[in-house]
Amino acid sequence: MTPLLLAIETSCDESAVACISQDGSIIGQQLHSQVQEHRQYGGVVPELATREHVKHLPGLVDRFLAAQKIAPQDISAVAATRGPGLASSLLVGWTFSKALAWALKIPLYGINHMEGHLLSPFAGQNIRPGLALIVSGGHTMIVKIRGLNDYSVLGRTRDDAAGEAFDKVAKLIGLPYPGGPAIEEAAKNGNGQRFQLPRSLPHEGDFSFSGLKTAVRYLWEKLSPQDQADVAASFQEAVVDALVSKAFRWCKDESCELLMVSGGVSCNERLRNRLQEEGVRQGVEVLLAPKALTTDNAAMIGLAGWYRMQAGFDAAGWQDDVDPNLGWS
Ligand code: KG4
Ligand code: ZN
After folding, report:
1. How far apart are CA 319 and CA 306, in angstroms?
2. What percent of the chain has pLDDT over 90?
3. Which of 81, 112, 119, 136 most suits a substitution to test ligand 1, by most atoms within 8 Å of the C-beta?
4. Burial code of 116-150, b = ≥16 C-beta within 10 A, e = fewer?
5. CA distances from 20 to 68, 288, 309, 315 (A)
6. What is the pTM assigned to this prediction?
7. Among the bound ligands, the one closest to the CA of 270
């Protein structure tokens, strides 16, 4: 068996494990979602998330290794999310990974969750310079990629992240958590042109979604449940418009011909289609994260670890701890 990299992700409400081979291909990945546990509260409850990770992560990893027929001695390195995320959720996966790496006497790579999202469109292929749009539940940002570990954040949201806006608006109009998939589903039966919701585009190149959320609140007060699909579709149009127009404006400003898109919101089909169409129109190559790597997963953490290992980056020290506010470095 060639040496394998095992990856663990527990930054929020998914316990996830994956395995990456020596050539950067994903051998497999498995996930335990806590969506059902958090749904009754309308969002992620950190204390509950931690308990669920403690309860499910060890069994998940055992079952994954058994299903993949991977023996402990086949694993040559571990990569785990060190931040950003919920402190106590991160701690479960990080401590588990540290113990595993220590016991097997193999290196442990501490991965920035955002770098996992950022590099996921490359999916093990060579990293190329360009601009990246990351749209998740916690972040919405435009990042310039020059190469591995050489990134600058050019723009970000001034208030809510795009995914957060989907989650909050879904709750407002009576759709379940997580809001993104629920709004996308409801929007299929709705008219996205019925309500002209504001596309707020702050001029410096940042994003803003809280005004849109407030506009939906006032609109919804005057409507009834049968308007739900039209509101969902109109809201989705407004978010997609804002993301697409801003991302391509950045490409133009930076003379960039490659746009990478990743994060949970990037599994939205309307957004994917609009980005591809606009890419063709503007002569920009659009590289979308494969759908299986859009929402939180361990494969993207493993890939980031694999790139780092290949490039000869140092593994984490045993004294390194989680960092809920981990930035780029
Ligand atoms: O990347 P992710 O799994 O977690 C974070 O790192 O935050 O993103 C989760 C976010 C949630 O806000 C969820 O509502 C959103 O991604 N999302 C979607 C869709 N699927 C998930 N948003 C829009 N359309 C979707 N189909
Ligand atoms: Zn994420």
Report:
1. 22
2. 94
3. 136
4. bbbbbbbbbeebeebbbbbbbbbbbbbbbbeebbe
5. 12, 20, 12, 17
6. 0.96
7. 1
